[in-house]
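Protein modeling request. Please complete all fields; requests missing the sequence field cannot be processed.
Requester role: graduate student
Desired output: 3D structure, token encoding
Chains: 1
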Amino acid sequence: MKPSGLNRTPYRLASSLPISISYKIAHRNAQHRNTQHRNTQHRMIQFICNNVPMPAFDRARAGRWIRSVAAGYGFTVGEVTYIFCDDEKILAVNREFLQHDYYTDVITFDYSTLDRLSGDIFISLDTVRSNAGQVGVPFEQELHRILIHGILHLTGQGDKTPETKAQMTAKEDAALAIL
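Delivered output (179 residues):
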């Protein structure tokens, strides 16, 4: 059963942890079919879906915004893949890779280098929708917050303590203000 209450507890997984090869191959094939934005220099932001429809938002604008925010922190964007999924999928990922038995809105797998952000960011659209209703904001606004939340994790921003959580929220708000 899904816990009640706002669930903004993303997790940053160290790049040294292995990812299932078969899972990566399957999703790379899906990425190729569903990619809306390609950059031939291996600097791309991709949005793919796993058992959910693609949410309605301007992906090109979001990509420009994400790159702008990353640049503000001194990073370029390498390969960043957003995987939109449902609550059951994110729970399965949380259990398999983090050994956590609860739902969350976002899980970030970090493959970044010193100056280039790269990673896989799983986002549960079910939880984003639920959170948007609980805080009284439109779904698209909450989705943008979670999109940038994953990027902020790739820049090294944590959110495990009250202090780092407040820093994360302030950075999300600043990023949303320039969208």
